[in-house]
């Protein structure tokens, strides 16, 4: 079975590269992935794989129904790109200004389509179903998952377990990385609007300066993680934007500060946000200003099911060899709305290696120079297909 699987994966590999490069050259932001949706549907149609649109969204759901009734395995690929200007020298670099597949979702789509192609040829051996979910808007937090849920992608037939794949620059091509339990952090965000009193830059005593107050707030926020969060729960608070004023001789009325919160614990994200709110409002009040704070928890932590993870590892080892299935104790402080799938059913979210120093594939996800070794497409296709067949064979 595994030998036939590998042969099919190798057969479809050139097409997967073509699809990946097409998506990479014409990336689309969240909820407007119309071209990606058409590319996906065209491949599915050409290979006689049943699919449907997700309502009025750009999402697509495909299904392979086995010869006998049984469990249903879901496999997710996110399809959106990022608002980044690409700085690679690839022949197929983004043709869309300020939009780039810098997180590898083009690779995810091609990999999962590869698995659909392979599994179509094993239909008679599948007991149950395999459902392929091509999800829009992962980069918008739970918005993409909400679309999937709204249009019933997890039902009819109901999904019993899910697989999520994500390419990572720190895992060498040819390998995958696994971890049971928390694999990606919970995430939240905040926006602080400091309302002061504007005036002329030459008479600051007549104003309530939101810039100065904002600077005090930013400095104070830096002590929350080090002084108020359990050091055994890895957490991050980052201020990422600070906007105020438009002219050098005018003290503005308002300053706006935004940032992100990450933690292994979803409850901790809420606790940190509440402390941000108290800190900002207290500092502003002490200077006769006002601070309005919005935000909170946006995405739960991604938690891998222990049993499913071990079964996935077994399938992957049979395909890649024990030396290429890497167990890790580390999880990412990045986040992914795959957390919501994993909250619904037992799931496995694994890291697919794309690093290859010889071709310059060393830059991290979300970097304008992010690139990947495309041999990862065959690796990902193989391990996902192998797990699906093992999971549904009895």
How are the elements arranged and paired?
Blueprint: H1 2-25, H2 34-46, E1 50-53, E2 60-65, E3 68-78, H3 105-120, E4 127-135, H4 143-150, E5 161-172, E6 176-178, E7 181-184, E8 186-195, E9 199-200, H5 210-228, E10 235-244, E11 250-251, E12 254-263, H6 266-286, E13 290-299, E14 302-304, H7 306-320, E15 325-327, H8 338-344, E16 347-355, H9 376-391
Parallel strand pairs: 3-4, 3-5, 5-16, 6-15
Antiparallel strand pairs: 1-2, 2-4, 6-16, 7-14, 8-12, 8-13, 9-11, 10-12
Helix pairs in contact: 1-3, 1-9, 3-9, 5-6, 7-9
Structure overview:
- By secondary structure, this protein is an alpha/beta fold.
- The chain has two domains: 275 residues, Zn peptidases (Aminopeptidase, 3-Layer(aba) Sandwich), CATH 3.40.630.10; 114 residues, Alpha-Beta Plaits (2-Layer Sandwich), CATH 3.30.70.
- Helices cover 35% and strands 27% of the residues.
- The protein contains nine helices and 16 strands.
- An eight-stranded mixed sheet has the order 1-2-4-3-5-16-6-15, sandwiched between helices.
- Helix 1 runs antiparallel to helix 3 and helix 3 packs across helix 9.
- The mean pLDDT is 96.
């Amino acid at each position: 079975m595994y030998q036939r699987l590998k042969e099919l994966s190798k057969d479809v590999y050139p097409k997967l590269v073509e699809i990946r490069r097409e998506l990479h050259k014409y990336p689309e932001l969240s909820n407007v992935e119309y071209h990606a949706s058409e590319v996906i549907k065209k491949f599915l149609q050409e290979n006689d794989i049943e699919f449907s649109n997700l309502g009025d969204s750009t999402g697509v759901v495909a299904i392979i129904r086995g010869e006998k009734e049984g469990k249903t395995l879901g496999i997710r690929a996110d399809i959106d790109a990022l608002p980044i200007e690409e700085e690679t020298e690839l022949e197929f670099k983004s043709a869309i200004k300020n939009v780039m597949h810098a997180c590898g979702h083009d690779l995810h789509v091609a990999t999962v389509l590869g698995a659909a192609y392979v599994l179509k040829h094993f239909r008679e051996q599948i007991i149950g179903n395999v459902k392929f979910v091509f999800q829009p808007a992962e980069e918008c937090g739970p918005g993409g998952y909400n679309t999937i849920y709204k249009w019933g992608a997890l039902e009819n037939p109901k999904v019993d377990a899910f697989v999520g794949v994500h390419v990572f620059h720190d895992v060498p091509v040819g390998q995958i990385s696994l971890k049971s339990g928390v694999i990606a952090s919970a995430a939240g965000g905040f926006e602080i609007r400091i309302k002061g009193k504007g005036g002329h830059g030459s008479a600051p005593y007549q104003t309530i300066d939101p810039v100065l107050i904002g600077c005090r707030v930013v400095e104070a926020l830096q002590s929350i993680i080090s002084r108020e969060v359990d050091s055994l729960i890895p957490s991050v608070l980052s201020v990422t934007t600070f906007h105020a004023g438009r002219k050098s001789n005018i003290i503005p009325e308002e300053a706006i500060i935004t940032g992100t919160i990450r933690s292994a614990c979803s409850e901790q994200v809420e606790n940190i946000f509440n402390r941000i709110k108290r800190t900002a409002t207290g500092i502003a009040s002490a200077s006769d200003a006002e601070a309005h704070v919005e935000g909170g928890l946006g995405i739960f932590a991604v938690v891998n099911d222990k049993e499913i993870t071990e079964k996935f590892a077994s399938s992957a080892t049979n395909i890649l060899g024990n030396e290429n299935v890497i167990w890790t104790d580390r999880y990412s402080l990045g986040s992914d709305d795959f957390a919501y799938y994993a909250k619904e059913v037992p799931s496995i979210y694994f890291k697919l290696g794309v690093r290859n120093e010889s071709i310059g594939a060393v830059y991290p996800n979300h970097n304008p120079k992010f690139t990947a070794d495309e041999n990862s497409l065959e690796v990902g296709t193989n391990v996902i297909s192998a797990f699906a067949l093992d999971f549904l064979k009895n």
